[in-house]
């Protein structure tokens, strides 16, 4: 496995007998090292050979989706332990799925009918109870009036009044008004509107009586629990009845009959009372409920049986469909007995593919073996890197910028180290680094379990990049030890500080009275720097110079990678007229600045590097005086300045002229006209020369080179300045951490109250996690990403290739239908 350059690829033609084609594609899918080209791109999906088989697989996939939806509604999930390696005959699977679908549909239909009946009966029972109570109370009032009439008839003192009551009660039936009524249930939230519109529609010629139900009931139509009221509407006339019926329909009110015959009403009420006393109504509903529960239990058992085999069936259907999809990409031979396939495969996979072809021929009892033929082509092959679970995340970072051109240098080899290191420079705190490391170690330890679960979008990104974050945490611990910061607190981990007090009076002083009492602190920053007045100027100077050194080093690495690219592809023009002048220009200016920084650190000189670099351009011949760092510096600066100026035309002018000369030499003498005695007829004459002999546009090449030169010259300045973000973000992270520690935690700890300390500790933890471990991590990640994509990769990385996507069954479980 070579991660520096993509695997060598070859274009292959396979000639496969029809009788072994299915098994051949299946074995190649198991191997997962062959990318098929579509030889029927001009045909629609319905015009291809195996369209009927794909339609059949799509129908089985629809049934499986139906089963999955039913399991989701039932609160079940497919079992992942049932995935077996043995194959099932597809015809048998198709019949099985059809039978299970029919049975499940029938169970669902019966259950819906029973549930609907149960809900209707429950509502009807409530209507009978509430309406019965209404009519029973009315009959009690009538009976009281009748007894009062009899009482008055027996007394002689109120004969006149009794006659009036008798006249009121025993009115002529022909003069009485016959009232009808409609009973049912209406949603409680609609009851007020129902009453108001009912009154307006009938102009008040109705009498509405409502009774509130204590508990919510399941609506037979909606299937949801709804709070309802029982209503009885009294009306007179068919016209009013029709209006009431339409309003009930509009408001979704369920109507239930209640006999209008007074004698039958009385019998019904008595019957209900008897049934309630004996449990008859409840018993009938209980029997219906038992029947529903039995049906649901049978449905649950059926779904559990399906769930145990679901993943296996789903994989088989997807596998079958993918095989026929590949077969549709193959061309039929003129003899109609063979299929012709073309595609890309790695060179190292040649023997494995040929073994798979031979095994498919033997297993299918074919008399003719498949033919493996390597084709010569000028088409650019796909890019294929063999990655593992550690390197794949870093490769995805590079591929997000652009897929590497075939066999150009892959930046991910260096990104594995440089990306987390640049991140850690901005995130240097070994306490925060330990938090990142512990979080990613949890993801890594449980990666097998988490990889089979559906995670949220943010959690999914964190899980896929767990090894990147792990490296970021490790490097953050390293740089945090160098900065000597643990949640902004310094520690004497590697020995005592080199500085101490001259006497007892400076015990609490950080700006004066300190003398060197020990050897230099062996690793990282001396803890005495923290809290001193000169801490910020010192750290600013150190981190700014350090950022320039790392930036120039990484840009030089990028230019060196362009040399290896040019050497690999045999492009000597790019070596001499792009790599060499770029190295000279960059290092004559910023390489020299890096040298001055190192010399100043080593010698302890007080030279002003700003003054040196500015007057190197403004007054290169002036004396350096106190800013001279080494002997011969003035002459050396003039030499570097002239070299940088000479490098610009060196990059600009020679390359376009040399490319033009190279083009003319390549096609010299290749222009010709077809002779009458040519062996090729006009319609099939070779035209590769005419295609390859493209016109050389010198002006276009020169303008492109001009843009490239200007971009590099200006980019050398801007890219170097861009690396100062390492200093800026490192300073911001350190200051934020210090503010949270001093102004939140220590301030709260100054109080004697446990509540105040608890609040302060909580705020400190949430601020540290939310701001420093989440927002600052994301910020440093994005800045490190920009430094790699723009400042590093634009020196050498083309990134105009395309990925190698082999046909593999291993990816079927990750893809949705």
From TrEMBL:
It is found in: Membrane. Pfam families: V_ATPase_I (PF01496). GO terms for molecular function: ATPase binding; proton-transporting ATPase activity, rotational mechanism. It is a multi-pass membrane protein. Keywords: Hydrogen ion transport, Ion transport, Membrane, Transmembrane, Transmembrane helix, Transport. The chain crosses the membrane at residues 421-445, 466-483, 546-564, 576-599, 635-653, 754-775. GO terms for cellular component: vacuolar proton-transporting V-type ATPase, V0 domain. One of its GO terms (biological process) is vacuolar acidification. Its main location: membrane. The keyword RNA-binding does not apply. Belongs to the V-ATPase 116 kDa subunit family. Essential component of the vacuolar proton pump (V-ATPase), a multimeric enzyme that catalyzes the translocation of protons across the membranes. Required for assembly and activity of the V-ATPase. This is V-type proton ATPase subunit a.
